[in-house]
Amino acid sequence: MTWNKELDTSRRYLMGPGPSDVHPRVLKAMSTPLVGHLDPEFIEIMDDIKYMVQHTFQTQNELTFVVSAPGSAGMETCLVNLLEPGDEAVICINGVFGNRMADIVERCGAKVVKVEAPWGEPITTEQIEKALSTCQPKLLAIVHAETSTGVLQPLQEIGNLVKEAGALFVVDAVTSYCGTEVKVDEWQIDAIYSGTQKCLSAPPGLSPISFSDDAVRVLENRNTKVQSWFLDLTMVKNYWAGAKRAYHHTAPVSAMFALREAYRLVLEEGLQNRFQRHLSNHKLLRDGLQEMGIHYPVQEEFRLPMLNAVTIPDHLDDVKIRQRLLHEYNIEIGGGLGKFAGKLWRIGLMGQSSSKNHVNMLLAALKDIV
Description:
Elements: E1 13-14, H1 24-30, H2 40-57, E2 63-67, H3 71-82, E3 88-93, H4 96-107, E4 111-116, H5 125-133, E5 137-143, E6 145-146, E7 151-152, H6 156-164, E8 168-172, E9 191-193, E10 207-211, H7 213-220, H8 233-240, H9 253-269, H10 271-291, E11 307-311, H11 318-329, E12 331-332, E13 334-335, E14 344-348, H12 356-369
Parallel strand pairs: 1-12, 3-4, 3-5, 5-8, 8-9
Antiparallel strand pairs: 2-10, 6-7, 9-10, 11-14, 13-14
């Protein structure tokens, strides 16, 4: 038992699939003295955050805010609010998180129409067009950045196909958000969610989301209650909008302080500069790993710049090397999930963890170990 000792964690360099390192300004903001979650000052902070979520999602959607729970709750928020029993939903699956969406859809009582691609490959527009023609979809949901495989999914053409089918377009942007381009309005995305612990580099536990006007109309014309009370946007939206905010739950005030500062850092850097930084550091890591005989299973045009999934050479022991990196160098990288367990390393260069220093530290440590 160590409960009676003062909390003192190790100083890690977080280069796994999340969380990422947090800027000292964000940590300082999180220690700001509390105010009430309905205090006029906190309402102003919520308005600041809403504006910054809209700006970074590149959207004018009015229903844009932050769910008081992590990215998986953002996923559930989008699906439980838009689906009712008997609806049909096309779910694109090429990794762990597509499967998670399918599971939630089934729990909503909706029918899942699966579009599947091998792990490490994107979903094709031809697959989607075929699936949309075989049903009457309420929505199509897809993962923009599949964290389990390192695949970046092209979205713009898919948005056009979904609109032609008269369906809603739902996107998981948990890993891509604030690390590469995410254009909600231009790509005709109707519902999108993310997390705060990856390229945004805030503490985990919050989920930025945005709903289009079409998605809001679907929400307002439901025939049944939303499956989840806590995530029911017919109530939650009244806490984030209007002159008089209606109490729904006690917001995580300190986490919101931290998030506001994390957004300020993003906007100070500029979105395009931030995207370029992630891409440049990805290329630096790629070149260094290839010199060591470590390669990517994903085709170059579909690789995530912020989450590098690389194949573990046969002669190397996955767990032993990750343990040595952690205990000897204080560097955390991630192992594979699902079908890729024991076969991949997942190296995060996200937000504050995306720097030349992080890349060079990891490459030097790997060269020393292997």
